[in-house]
Structures are given as C-alpha cells and as structure tokens.
Amino acid sequence: MIKYLNTLFLIATSFAAGAQQSSRASQIKQIYDEVLLRGQCYQTLDYLCNSIGGRLSGSPQAEQAVNYMFATIKNYGFDTVFLQPVMVPHWVRGAKEKAAIVQGKQRIEVPICALGGSVATPKNGIEAEVIEVKSIAELKTLGTEKLSGKIVFFNRPMDPTFFHTGTAYGGAGDQRGIGPAEAARYGAIGVVVRSLTLAYDDNPHTGMTRYNDSLPKIPACAISTKGAETLSNLIKNNGTGKVRMYFKQQCETLPDVLSYNVVAEIRGSERPDEIIIAGGHLDSWDNGQGAHDDGAGCVQSIEALRLIKVLGLKPKRTLRAVLFMNEENGVKGGNEYARVAALDKSTKHIAAIESDAGGFTPRAFGVEDSMAMVHFKSWEELFKPYGIEQIRKGWGGTDISPLRPQGTVLIGYVPDSQRYFDYHHTEIDTFDKINKRELELGAAAISALMWLMSEEGVH
Ligand SMILES: [Zn+2]
To answer: If 0-12 CB within 10 Å is exposed, 13-18 middle and 19+ buried, where does residue 327 land?
Structure first.
C-alpha cells in the first residue's frame, strides 16, 4: 500500500513539474511573440542613436539621454520610475586629432583618436622617434635609456584564435589601460596604442586609459589597425630609430558633473524585498552613436521589463531595469547603485543581468555563481527553441560588479561576439549596424530569464 501511495505521489509530482514546465514554456513563448510582433526597443534605440547620438558622461547628450529614457519609461506604466543622482567625470575630446608617420621628408597621415582620460599634447603636437613594443614587460627590458623622450607604440594585436572575441579583447587590453602610465615610468613623452579590434581598417578605437598619479601624465592615442601595420612595417624595413611620429590632440578633463542612473521597477507580489535587475549603460563614447555599446543593452533591459508588464504577468519578486551612467570612464553609476542598494537593509538584490556585449544574436547566459548556474541549467531546455544553447559559467558585467559583495548572483547576457569589436568605441558604432530581430530576441531572452528567476528564485 505504501509503495502504491509512493508511486502515486511520484506520478503526481512529476505531473505537476511537467505542467509547470509547460506553463513556463508558454509564458516564454508569449514574451518572444510579444517582442517580435509589437516590440518597441528598436524605435527607442533609433531615437537614442540618431536624434541624440554619442553620450559621453557629463556631455549635453548624456543629459538628453537621461531625460529621454526617463520620459519614455514613464509611459510604460511601471510601478516606480526614478532617477538616482551620481557625480560623473567630464572629459572632452576637443578638436579632431591629427597624426602622421614621419620618415625623412615623407609624412604619411594616419587615423588616430585620443584615449579616454588622456591629457592633450602641447598646442603644436609632439613629434619623436617611435619605439615599438608588444607588451608592458618589454618596457622594463628597454628601460629609461631606450625610452626616454620617445613615443612608445604598443602593437600587440588581439589574439584571433580565441572563439570569444571578448577573451581576445581582455588579453590585449592592458596596453590601452595601463600602457601610457607604464611608458611614462621610463620617460616616454607619448603613447600610441594599436586599436583593440580584430578588424583591419581605418577606424581608431578609443577607450579608457588610467594614469598613475605618482607618474607623469603623457598624451595617449589609439591608431587604426591599418595605421598600426603601416607604422610597424616602416620600423621593420628602416630599423629602430629611423621612424618618427607626430600627433596632436586637445582633449581635457573638466570638473565633475551631476548625472543620473535611470531606474524602472515592477514591484513583486509575494517577495517584494527580493530584487532582480537587468541593466546596460546609458553613457557611451563620444565618437559614434553608442548603438551596440551600449544603447542596445539599455533598450533591451527596459523592453525586458515592459514585456512582462504588457503581458500582465505578475512577478513574485521585484524586477527592475537599470540604465547605469558612466560605465565607460569611471563606473560611477554602477558603484553608486550598489552603494545605495547596500544601505537599504529591508531589501536584497538577489540577481543582476547585464547586457553590454552588443545587440547581436543571443547565444548564452554566463553566470558567476556556480550554485545558481546549476539551478539555471534546469531552464536550458526552455531557451533552446530560441537559439540560446547554453547557460554556463561566465562573467556578469562592469556595472553590476559592485553588487558582488552583497551576494547578488551576477549574470552576463552573451550575444554572438564575432562583430562586436569591429564597432566597439568607434565612429561606426551606429544604429544602422543594429538588426531589429536580433535586438528583440535579446530583449526577450533577458525578459524570460528575469521571469524565471522571479518565479523560481536563484538557488
Ligand atoms: Zn559597454
């Protein structure tokens, strides 16, 4: 008899689990259908890119973007929409940069752009002999004797053999991040960094460099990959010491500016104190439109929340979309969001998803926490019909990282990575590079994951 009851119980629970799985599948189908039929994220991104444009922290465009997104989200009928104040750095590029490779009487103009945070050159620019290196370690070998008074040219390409281009980017990033500070240690007067991209073209890629306060601040720029090859070949053919470079840039850092994170919320019906967020960063570099980086992540996060709202799904836990300010050159918005979250002891941020890898075809979610990852793995089947093949270990994102000490489960939304670094931090990161369906499918994937976490928790 007991055995019989046990069997009945097992049948009943597996039937219930099966029924739950099929209702989850139909809810997720509703989310995808809604975005593909009546999605709004593409239009919002159009405005953000084509009517506002690049949105570097502290700029008038960043302020317009905050106002526009706030007004747009207000119309969606969320429970709460608010601005969270934060002071941000204000770096400006100034007049368009100029550069030339100088060899005897020959001058070959090459495309460059100042690195974010860089100081200007003197008014008439700088010109000096170029020393090519492939790594920070090489600077030490050359020492002050070889580097003093020179322009250091960092020319280690991103490694094309990594399937995930983000890994290749990470592997080359130290040249831009700390290269200028380290070159200054040995008396260099300027730095040129090969653009962080696998594309071979004339677009220089900007991005933040970080000086060391105890060392001189020297001007630093990125050169296009074609320009880098030209420079490197000339050095190879003519010998070190024979090739000089000239560049001029007029960037400067102005006083900090008051700006905002933009936050929208649907309050949870059963566990409102447990908060799940999805976010991207509203600021972008100034040279393009910040379409893939990271207008896409912003409109997807808002859309993820809006889909749940319009479908009348009532989340058990509180869901938020957060548009962070100042990811590119300071992460002030991400830090402020986490600081304020930690102060509120009545709530806990249980999970955060970041979309900051472009608006390309959805492929996976990367989860930092192993236990949560195992739990989420049980949802993989629900995502497979939509091309998301994998929920795996992975990094969350820059803006949500400050939440890590609070025990928040951090999740990175992972789209296809093959084209992201073609556009990243350049003039060509523009709206025409966005595919409407790919963008929408990403919004639906984020929305579905938020919904599953809201209903079933993170562990
Ligand atoms: Zn970004």
So the answer is: buried
Instruction: Give the domain extent around 131.
Output: 94-250
CA of 186 to the centre of ligand 1 (A): 32
Q: Ligand 1 center to residue 23 CA distance, Å? A: 35
pLDDT tens digits for range 209-257? 999 999 999 999 999 999 999 999 999 999 878 899 999 999 999 999 9
Same domain as 283, residue 199: no
- pLDDT above 70: percentage of residues in the chain: 96
Query: Last residue of some domain: 201, 216, 250?
Result: 250
Residue 104, pLDDT score: 86
Map tokens 């300010």 to a residue.
Answer: 325
pLDDT at 241: 81
The CATH number for 211's domain is 3.50.30.30
Do 330 and 451 lie in a common domain? yes
Domain identity same for 63 and 153: no
Cα(230) to centroid of ligand 1, in Å?
29
- pLDDT tens per residue, range 379-403: 999 999 999 999 999 999 999 999 9
Identify whether 438 is a catalytic site residue.
no
The pTM assigned to this predicted structure is: 0.95
pLDDT at 21: 75
Q: How far apart are CA 184 and CA 190, in angstroms?
A: 8
Say if residue 297 is in the same domain as residue 183. Answer: no
Classified as helix, coil or strand, 56 is: coil
**Is 9 a domain residue?**
no
The parts of the chain modelled with pLDDT lower than 50 are none
Do both 55 and 143 map to the same domain? no
Residue 372, Cβ density class (10 Å: 0-12 exposed, 13-18 middle, ≥19 buried) = buried
Does the residue 16 lie in any domain?
Answer: no
Give the pLDDT of residue 22: 81
Q: Helices marked H in 318-435 — which ranges? A: 332-343, 370-377, 380-383, 420-423
Distance (angstroms) between ligand 1 centre and the Cα of 131 equals 31
Backbone angles phi, psi at 307, to 5 degrees: -60, -45
pLDDT at position 429 is 98
Distance separating alpha carbons of residues 129 and 241, to the nearest angstrom:
6
147 vs 36, 189, 361, CA distance in Å? Answer: 57, 9, 45
- Among candidate residues 97, 265, 274, 327, the one labeled active-site is 327
